[in-house]
Every structure is written in structure tokens, then in C-alpha cells.
Amino acid sequence: MKRQSFAQMSKINYLGYILLHPWDGFQELKYNKKASPAIATVILALWYFFEIISRQSTDFAFNQFRPETLDIFKVALSTLLIFFVAVLSNWCFSTFMDGNGSLAEIYTVGAYALTPMVVSVILNVILSKFFVLEEAAMLNGVQIVAGIWSIVLILAALQETHELNFGQTVAMVLLTLVGMLAILFLVMLVYSLFQQVVMFVVNISYEIMYRFTM
Amino acid sequence: MQVLKNNLNQSWGCNTGMKIKTFILTVVMAIVMIMPMTGVLAKEPYQGHVYNSYGERVAAPNAFLPAGILNGTMLGIGQFYKPGDIFVDKDNNLYILDTGNNRVVITDENYNLVKVIDKFTFNGEDSPLKEPSGIFAKNGTLYIADRLNERVVVCDMDGNISKEYRKPVTDYLEENLTFSPRKLVVNSIDTLYIISDNINEGIVEMDEDGNFESFFGAETVQLSAEDVADLFWRRFFTEEQIAQMASMSPAAYTNLMIDEHDFIYTATSLETNTVDQLKKLNPNGNNVLTSASFGDVSSEVTSSSSNSSSNNKDANAFIDVTVDNEGFIYGLDRNSGKIFMYNQRSENLAIFGKLGSEIGCFGDVSAIESLKDDILVADQANDVITIFRPTTYGSLIKKAVNLHETGNYEEALQPWTTIKGLNNNYEMAYIGIGRAHMLMGEYPEAMYNFKLGNNKELYSVAKKANRTQNLREHFGLYILTVIVIIVLIWLAVKYREQIGEWLKKVLKIKKREKGAK
Known about the structure:
- The structure holds 2 protein chains of 2 kinds.
- Chain A is 81% helix and 0% strand.
- By secondary structure, chain A is mostly helical.
- Chain A starts with a helix and ends with a helix.
- Helices cover 34% and strands 26% of the residues of chain B.
- The longest helix of chain B is centred in the first third of the chain and has 27 residues, at 16-42.
């Protein structure tokens, strides 16, 4: 009965089902081709906004950040950029590991898996208004539960999307982390090289300008 | 004369053009005369600053300003030469140890000369001082650390030496070690505490008869990662190599001062470690001051780990410390020429002073003392004593902190509010105001002020009180909300299938609409 209803389930209902039944959910998601990049994008956008709200309006007692120094580009770097690099890195390594996920699939299931964490970010903001420092354990508890939940979802998502066994999945996660470091290193390298090239061109143009204006 | 007056009258009366000119001239003259006066009043030799709790330097009004200087010429006794120490006794007499001239100059509390002692006799013979560097006075008796003569002398106001202390005989001190006492204090039962060059085990504690008692307040060695590496390499080195290495000895005290309860305040010029440079030692030699990092915030100080002399120019080197009669602690930093003012909880209240050549700035500071409200700083490069006096802002801080620390938060509200008006960046003012509101039961205001004072703990306490108060006042409302939520959840669980059906209907309708389009 359930098996048949999967086909009729709407895309958003899949998300709800996945949260409580990660392995089954992601398997059916792939099998029925109900992964929705649009929903994934919404989740990521919400994550970004919630992170900004969190830095801006978490209660003073719990806010680790200074709201007056908020920089939304830096927030994007520490949330969205990391996510995209992770997706990219995972996609690269999926070839190594004989994974079957496409880039769009990885992106989608990755964002799906972040849902509990995204919710916990905004939940933390709301709860922080009611709690005081002595009760910080409550807030941390919520964070930890959400974090573990998301990690389990990520493992399930990768395992089912790439059609691997659990050991391979763990290996893939580790490889992905290494890959992320490599990508970030290359980005830094290219950035600084480009800076040099740009400076070189600028200097040359100045020289030429001086040559002809003197 | 009469003619001249008439002429003048005529010219005043007749020539209106002349009148205007005179008027303009008068105005210009008045401006020119007033200008230098305002210039002098507005000119402060430096801009005060404090550090906020993020370690950022923020501007602040000056808490102390130089009120004047004191030098030998002003006292009519010839220039000072490298004054090495100053001391203020209980009757507010100022003792200036004029190191370069080997004499002691005594003034009263209004800085009028009382006496110059430049002749010292011991057992009827001349016994001049040789570069003395520390002075202490008690009940008309002077204790002088006579450094190059390797002794501490006790004399009366006429320079008659009654006693001299040599290097104490003890197994703890090597025999060939020269005793060169630099600074000293004497407590109420005549025990001497002496800081000596090349004795870094601690402060030498000596009884009245010159018997060694102990090393007081021995500094602990701070073992850093570098030291551990050194220990490792030492295993492979020859003895000569080890001798070349810097020994791992504790940083020595640079100066000390004793208060009326026999607590000893010490300054340490620790350039690699920026914690506990100032200490307050109880009679057991334990530090009772809140452990803190004194001086400039370490992030601002250039790192001073390996390249020794050139890099750590900016690290603080506390050369002296003093405590005024209200318990405020002033640490004098030789490297930056700044004076850091602290309360008894090691909280930085104000920073003032600067290196430079203007009046009120320093060349090379050697000692600091407080005389009533004044702070005196001896400068051994410019050979002057600079007198600092608290500004209105400085006095307000003293008043507010005193009231705050004795728990009179409500009385402290008024001065704190004024301070806040003068210095918006002063976090302690917000905390003081918040404390007062807290005591008056105005918790939201307390929360607001603690937040501005950037104190999460106090904010949280105020928030809890506020929450409890709200719960008490609106208990019914909260209970009602909770009941409504529980009922809603219960209903949702009970009728989940119906709700599901209804949701499906809504969705289907939407789908149909889509299909119709």
C-alpha cells in the first residue's frame, strides 16, 4: 500500500517522509525521480536567511557574533560557499567511488539533508529569547540533536543516491572533506595569481600612459 | 595735556571712519588676547583612551591631566639629576631621591621645599650615597637603597645613618653574588622587603636586625612551549652551550609599594607574558588581586616572542606601581610612558600619559606616587616630577567606582549617568547604571544597560529576573497559552486523518485549477 503511494506523493511530502525515514525516503526519492532542485534551493535560501537572522537577532546572552559587524557576504562564504564546495567535491569523488548520483541529485539531497539544521538555526533564535545563560544546555541540546539528525540524513542521502554500502559512504565523506580543502586551496591560489596578473596589467597600462603623456 | 585730550575728543567725535577702525582694532585686539588663553585651556597633550571588552581602543576624555611640573630649579636647589625614586609618607610629605646628585629632597604636600639631605654621616664619618635608587620613609626615619654601595641605610632627617644593612647571610644566596638593592619598603613591624638586582628568587625579606627571613612572593616560572623545546635540546648540548643559553628564571619584580594594611603591591616587567604584571601580595606572599592582563591589550602589542629587543618595543614594561588612598592602582609603563589606572578588581578605568617632550609628557619614567588626589611621576630623562590631577571626568570615575564597589549602586547612578554623558564608550558606566536599575526592580532598563555594557552574565541575571516578574504578573495568560497549545496539539493528533483529507482536497483543488489553465 505504502509502496504505491510513493508514486503519488507530492515532492514536498517526500521531504517530510525523508526526515523520519532517511534510508527508505532517499531510496524512493531516487527511484521515483521526485528530487526537486527548486525545493533544495528554497532550503538553502532559508538557511542563508536564518543564519543572517541568527547573527542579527539571537538574544544578546547567547549571541556569539556582534550584530554591528554583520557582513552578509561573509555569512554567505561560511554557509552557501561551503555547501557548494562540498557538493562539487562530492561529485568529483563519486566517479572514484562508482557513485551513481548526478550533480543535480547531490545538490538536491544535500540540501534536503540540511533541513533539521536549518530549522534548528531559527529555533535557536526563538528559544534564545526565552532562556537565560544558566539554561544554555537546553539550547545546546536542540543544536546537537539537529546536528546529529542532519549528519545521519547526509550519510543516508549519499548512500542511497550513489547506491553504495555504508562503509563506502563513510570513506566518501572523508574523501569529500579532503577534496573540499583541495578546492579551497586551488581557489585561493587562482585568486592570488589573478590578483598578480591584474596588478601586472594595471602597472603596464600606467607605464604606457606615462610614456605617452610625458 | 588738556589740548591733547581735546584733540582726541575731536577726533573721536568727528571722524566716524576712525571710530569704526578703532572698533575693529579693539575687537581684533580682544580676539588676539583671548586666543592664546583658550588655546592653552583647550590644549591637552594627549587624547585619553580605554579598551572596550572586545579589546578595541576607543577614545575617552582624559581622566588625569598634568597640572604642573616640579624640578630642582623651581625649588631653588639646582637641577635634579636622574631622579630614581619618589615616596610619599603618611603625612603627605614628598621624598624625592635625586639619584644622580646622591641626595634626598623633601617637600610638603604643597610642593614647598622642606629640606635637602645631601650629607650622610655614619658613626661620625662621612658616608655619601652612591647612586641610590630606592627610598622609603616612616615616622621620620628614612630607608634608602644605596645601590652601588651595596647596602640599605637607615637614617634620620639630618642624614645621620643609624643602621646599615648589608647582604644578608644565608645559604640561599651565593657568596660571590653582589647585593645591589634597588627598591625597598618597610612594613608596620619594621620588616624590610628589598628588591635587588640579580636576585630573582623573589623579594628579599629581612627582619629589623638584618637577618634573612625568606624570599617573599617568589614569581613562578612560566613554562612555555619554547622552554619545553629548550629542555629537550639541553640534553644534547655541551655545558658551554648551556651556559650560553638564557636561563629559565622567573621575571624579576621591578618595583613595589606597601599600603597601610601591609599589603605589598608589585610591578613586573614581563615582556613575554602579559598576565599579572601587577600584583597585590598579602603577608603570606600570595597574589590577592584578580588575575588579569594589565597594560595595553595584547592584540595591539607587537608579538615579542623570538626577536627580542627590536620587536617588543610596544610590549608593556611596568616600572612602578602605586595605590592612592582610595585603593585605586596606578601602573606606570616605561615603554609607552602611559599610566594605567585600575580598581581593586583589576578593571582598567583610565589610561593617561605619553612619551614626548611637551610639559606633561615623559622622556624616561622611573617612579610613580600618589599624594592626596595627585599622581606624581618622576622622569629621569627630563629630570622633573610631573604632577597629574584628576579632571572632572576622572573625579567622577573615582566617586562612581567607590560607590559601586561598596554596593551603593543607587547612589552611584548619578555619577555613572554623568560619566556616560561624557564618554559613551565607557562600558563600566553602563554596568553601574544597570546595577542601579536592577536594584530598583527596573529589569528591562537593567537588561538594556547591561547589553550596552557588554556583560552577558549580568544581562542574563536581569533577564531571568524580568522573566520571573513577567510570569508572576501575567501568570493566567501564560497558563492559558500553554493550555490552548496543548489542546490544539491534542485536536490535531485526534483528527489527523480528517485534516489530511481536507489538505488533500485543498491540494486537489489547486491541481484542478492548474489543470484548467
